[in-house]
Amino acid sequence: MSGERGAAATGDERTAGGVRTASGVTGAARIRAVPDGRGGTALPLLTGEGALAVRRTRTAPPGAAVTLVGAMSAPLGGDRLRVDVEVGAGARLTVGSAAATVALPGRERRPAAYDVRLTLAEDAVLHWLPEPVIAAAGSDLRMTMRAEVAPGALLVLREELVLGRHGEPPGRLVSRLTLTVDGRTVLDQELAAGRGAAPGWDGPAGLAGHRAAGQLLLVGAEGATLLPRVLTTRADAVQAAATPLAGAPATLVTALAPDARELRPLLIRTLHAALAPSPHPRPALATAP
Amino acid sequence: MSAALLLLADGRFPAGGHAHSGGAETAVAEGRITDAATLAEFCRGRLHTTGLVAAALAAAATAGADPLALDGAADARTPSPVLRAVSRRLGRQLLRAARAAWPSPALDRLGAARPRGAHQPVVLGVAARAAGLTPLDAARATAYEAVSSPATATVRLLALDPFESAAVLARLGPEVDAVAEAAEAAARRALSEGLDALPAASAPLLDIGAERHAAWPTRLFTS
Amino acid sequence: MHQDHPEVFPQRHTMSASGGGRRALRVGLGGPVGSGKTATVAALCRALRDEVAIGVVTNDIYTREDADFLLRQAVLAPERITAVETGACPHTAIRDDISANLEAVEDLEEQAGPLDLVLLESGGDNLTATFSKGLVDVQIFVIDVAGGDDIPRKGGPGVTTSDLLVVNKVDLAEHVGADLDRMATDAAAQRGGLPTVFTSVARGQGIEPVAAWIRERLARKAAGAA
Predict the structure, then answer these.
(1) CATH code at B143?
(2) Residue C147: how many CA atoms within 13 Å on its side-chain side?
(3) Domains of chain C: total
(4) Could you report the per-residue pLDDT of B69-78, keeping only the tens digit for each?
(5) Measured between beta carbons, which residues in chain A are less than 8 angstroms from residue B43?
(6) Residue of chain C with shortest Cα separation from B117
(7) Which of A210-214, A216-220, B17-21, B203-207 is predicted least confidently?
(8) Mapping DSSP to helix (H, G, I), strand (E, B) and coil, where does residue C171 land?
(9) InterPro entries, alphabetically (chain A) (predicted)?
(10) Domain assignment present for B54
(11) Is C11 part of a structural domain of the chain?
């Protein structure tokens, strides 16, 4: 696929995987999930255009599951990717991705954009659990993730950002995560890292040498607010805290790790603890330094 | 430069700041601040993230944006409950001092609407307006506080040479000014485009460190 | 500078923000580390708690140690005791920037209901630390004989200006070679007409004159308020 990317584009031009314009490749995926009337979830809208494809995957009822497939290798400089997910009242959906998204430097010096919008109606359930985004050396990616959640809905959102492939310096990555619950913004935060980010990003107040940053956002999950707030000790490789947000039943888990491999287990453990049916979901998580 | 700005930004203005380290106590204890160079990097990271956000909130408040809406925007930009509580406590303390220094109906209204304290940058912005200061003044005072608090605390925590600490702050001066200007520009955009135009830059280790600090059985600083 | 108010002397914002109603007598207790401030506070609570509603604010150098001591001693209900963290500068928190302490007092009065007496204990500091008049109505300075019998002669703001000087641990005087008569003479010389009492609080001696002094202050305040 990357060979096709090599053909320089002038103006609009159809390629095997996407629409190449003067401003780079565009890709858009749209998913709408609604109850199917038989206790399951139907997907009346499931489209992938350009660099993004979507596949319905096998799942246990009652929910539906979709896998995002990057039909082209990655966002390059100037590319614009967009994913819209709409989960109707009472529908249940899980979205994952087939592989990590690797941001690469493009021929153009402009940043790539990756925008995700998640909309959950009342009593909708969405698990957004894609593979990591990796900012390869020289890349420049701006991501926005906006989740609009209605009362009573359940959102589980995982985001893993990895700065550089193994042993290489990181590209630039700016990721803004915004959550509204019932129309009110309860979380708005941006992480900027890599070459060209504001000074101090890797210093003792920033990432301090960590190369993987993870977030787990749990909205409407009862167990989430019962998590211990301090999840790791200062001696652990992974640094993490679970912080209940103001004004909504939502908790944000923030984690930093030396690399992606060490990040995932902590996020999974925390997720299981938060969603466990037990009234005291506190498995092997440290509580104090 | 107005004398009122000097008073508002003075570390001896009785608004409670002396008991807070801006995350420096955790960073010192965890070996991330060990000398003037690492202190400067810590301050720089704080300045360009939470410092920028706080400065923009303050500038927007001075420019006349609704303080209660800004208070909500500050909540959304502060995922750590510990840091939210700290900001509100400092806001309450600042409000007390500001009401004595620059009596104003706007400060009275804010105190009545948020008796447990509004977020500190919002109070600072409203106080700056009451003192006849500009949004850029408020941004500057707030951005400076983002670096002066850890620098002052580190003098006590590490017995760092106070001249080195002052030199760190002096060298950061141009960056503080630049952040204040960016914050003021964002605040101006927020007035016309809505509060989503305010910056939301975050520093994960400051959030994680603040939560851990609050769980320590003994500490010198409140935060 | 912009001014949309007439120039009037601002009201005392350091007073309770809620305004009106009964306000407790605020008594500051300062003094060097180890002189027995916390033990004095505990003894005062035991002596006075059946007569008046008391709250305590401690200013610990290292967070809640003193508050925890008082809680363990169970001298008051837990909601009557609170701690202020002072950022390594205990004198700042009681003198130069009293905002955290004022808030702690107001929060105590809000949580525990109307109080008659709030005891504010400073973090152990040197001889120069005194309480702001914006924070306390009267202050007690606690020194001890083991700290040296020349402290009263040396003076300093705590010794010379406190409303009551307490010289504690008199039971140790002969062990440390302290001359109590000399201390009394020096204190009288330094303090004009202000009172000095000698106690051995940990031995259960001498708290009664201190409690009586506070009772008298409470009565004076009640009379003034009436």
Answers:
(1) 1.10.4190.10
(2) 22
(3) 1
(4) 999 999 999 9
(5) 200, 205
(6) C103
(7) B17-21
(8) helix
(9) UreD
(10) yes
(11) no
